[in-house]
Structure formats: structure tokens, C-alpha cells
Amino acid sequence: MATPDNLVVIYKELADAHERQGQPQMRDRYLVLAADAALSAGRGAEADLLLGRLLRSNPHHMLRPFASFAEAMASPDIQNYVGELRRTHPPQQAEAEFDALRAARGAQGSASQAPALPPTAPAGNGDNVPSADANRETLKVYRIHEEVEPPPAPTVPRVPRPAAPRPPVAPPKGPPRPARPSPLAPTIATGSALPLPPSPADAEDTAKGSWLSVCLFVLLLAAGMALAAWALLRPFLPLG
């Protein structure tokens, strides 16, 4: 059975291991158990240090309202919480986890600290082993001729070509002169020709037509008057 002092170390180691594994919930539980073991061993200052580490890692923990771990243990809610942690993670289970953790660390340390063995020489008769002088090859020295790059050819400066002369700018032309009106313009614009004098044949036809019209008019007038007179006088004429 581990003593309270040993339980403080065991719970702290387990809290560190779970923090490295990225398990903050298990880390917080073992920190609370470590502070409880330290307070049970009469090490209140260490219990307060563990409480400070817990609140730095998890500022929203349920122990944040308390200034010390002893003050927290005076609360019934915290007593029930710590009692539940004691039943869930008893000291025997913590010791078993701690031993497994130490065994895993020892296996990793022995694997990393094992010295590498030098390569073994092939077995054989010592007389048949060639000497180092026989295997030594003659060092051959080769002279390296550095290739010298030829100097760059001198560049001939380019002579700028003279700019082509610009064509002279023609002076602006004046406004066009108005065209003189033609004497035939009114006649062409209106589309009518000058009246021509009537010929003698046309005059004669015109006169004959006018006389004929007058005669027809007189005949029609006389016939109309006779018809009107007959219509007026018929009632007064004796019947035959």
C-alpha cells in the first residue's frame, strides 16, 4: 500500500503522462487526486500549487472559485466530487498504471541507449588475409585544366538613324464660294414651262365649240318651256 507521500508522486506522474497524450480530462482528475493526497500528508502548500496548475490548464474547472485546496475541501460539493474520484481511481489502480508507465519508459530507454555493434569481419585464416599494403592502390593525380573563356567581343555602338522629315502641313482651305444662281433655276425647280401662244387652228376649234354649245342650250330651254306650258294648261283644255 502506497503512503500519501508516494501517492502524490504517482498522481503527478500520471497527470503528466495524460497531458503528453492529449487527455486533459484525465490530467485534471489526477491533479485533483494529487492535491488531495498532499493535503492528507500535511503538505498544504504543495496542494495549493497543484490547484494553481489545474486552474492554469483549465480555467473553467469547478474549483476556480476557491483560493486554496483546503478551502475547496470545506465545500460539500467538492468533498463529494473528490470522493467519487477516489472510488473511480483507487490507489491500487494508480500504482498499477504507474508501474506500467515506468516499464514502458525503461523499455524505450534501453532501446535508445543500446550501442551499435561494429560490423564483424569475415571469418577465415589469418594467413590468407591480404595485407593493407597489398590492397592499397596507387593514388593517381589528374591535372585539371581550367577552361578559360575567351574575352567577349567588343560591342560596336549603334549610330542612331536620323529621323525621317515630316511632310509639310497643308494650310487650311477657305470656305467654298457660293455658286451663282442660274436664270433657268426657277423654271427647273418648279417643273413648269412658259405658256405658249395659241395657234390659229386651235382658236377656230374653240369658237365652233362655243357656238354649238349655245345652240344646244337654246333648244333645251325652248323644249323645257313648252313642256312646262303644256303641263300648266292641260287642266283647262277640253277633253276630246
Structure overview:
The protein has 240 residues and is mainly α. It is 55% helix and 0% strand. The protein is elongated. About 16% of the residues have low confidence.
Give unreliable regions as ranges.
Answer: 114-139, 183-194
Oligomeric status: single chain
Per DSSP, what share of the residues sits in E-state strands of 2 or more residues?
Answer: under 5%
**How many E-type strands?**
0
Order of helices and strands: HHHHHHHHH
From the N-terminal CA to the C-terminal CA, the straight-line distance is 181 Å
| Relative helix content | 55-70%
Shape: elongated
Largest sheet: none
Structural class call reads mainly alpha
Averaged pLDDT: 74
Radius of gyration of CA atoms, rounded to a whole number = 70 Å
User: Number of helix segments?
Assistant: 9
What's the layout of helices and strands?
Layout (H helix, E strand, L loop, with lengths): L3 H17 L3 H17 L3 H14 L11 H5 L2 H13 L2 H23 L18 H4 L49 H6 L9 H34 L7
Helix pairs in contact: 1-2, 1-6, 2-3
Quick overview:
By secondary structure, the protein is an all-alpha fold.
Core attributes:
9 helices, mainly alpha
